[in-house]
Target: tRNA N6-adenosine threonylcarbamoyltransferase
Amino acid sequence: MRVLGIETTCDETAAAIVGVDRAGEAKILSNEILSQIAAHAAYGGVVPEIAARAHVEAIDRIVARAFETAGLKVSEIDAIAAAAGPGLVGGVMVGLTSAKAIALVTGKPFIAVNHLEGHALTARLTDDVAFPYLLLLVSGGHTQLLAVRGVGDYLRLGTTIDDAVGEAFDKIAKMLGLPYPGGPSVEREALNGDSERFEFPRPMSGRPKPDFSLSGLKTAVRLMAERIAPLSDRDVADLCASFQAAVVDVLVDRTRAGLRACREAGISPSTLVVAGGVAANQAIRSGLTRLATEAGLPMVAPPLALCGDNGAMIAWAGLERLRLGLIDDMGALARPRWPL
Ligand code: KG4
Ligand code: ZN
Model:
């Protein structure tokens, strides 16, 4: 069984083919990605109009490359999946329309995948993770703790009341004059910084409901940066390290509350999983590994290439849906807002 997955919800044009063999072993047969980072860097963030146009220009080439790399013909796949949201509507429509066109021409099933479900199920593509599991989903637009009970069966335990974690990284980077995308820039600076120089707040710490708040932390970093300006290289590194340490503490504390909430809901998670672009952060991965050990659970984080947006996660979610007979018709619409 093989599925083509197309991802165009933000600033990556991506297409991949994922398969499972007869023994049920999952395999990524191709995973092509064209990042638009250079096109948006000058603006310090993603510009929707530029993104949509870049997706239109790249999509056919990226899909063709996914087939070439896999050494497969269109007739050799079983279904076509595309992320139908949440995300920037212009980009989503490009991927969705391409997927529907391929499905119509070939007569193969079409599957509309929720981008967040793609992140949520990635751990099952790379590791043997059984349902239910506790998922910390941290990306540029989303910060959620979910009990993943099955494909399409998600219990949201908590979410952010203001900024997403990735968004906070991006805003701090912009404020400190670091290149876009902010997460990797802040992480790089933090490596050389003193995480104890500034004591930033850990919002929501100790609260039983596993919700998040990042905006107060972001403001604290801004006020400190303004107070000590002009900033030396050392100041920037120390601000990044102190900010990142606060984020790690917050995520560990909130995920601990998520574990408790999960068990209170009668769900006994098999694994602690972290996913989304921010899951690439090594300090965050280490903090969560410590928490998992404390809780007696295995911790699974996707390999770095599968943390950020990619086509394989959409192909895999499509494959999980196809196995359950969950296919969509051509009426499936782009959904800029689409909670899991
Ligand atoms: O999942 P993703 O690729 O796109 C969305 O669906 O949002 O996540 C992108 C986000 C950006 O905010 C980016 O700054 C952040 O993930 N990110 C990181 C790191 N790498 C990417 N944040 C912290 N540390 C990183 N190493
Ligand atoms: Zn994403």
In short: The chain has a mean pLDDT of 97. Residues 10, 139-141, 166-167, 169-170, 181-184, 187, 276-278, 280-281, 308-309 surround KG4 (ligand 1) (CB under 6 Å). The beta strands are 2-7, 12-20, 26-35, 79-85, 110-114, 133-138, 143-150, 153-159, 272-275, 299-300.
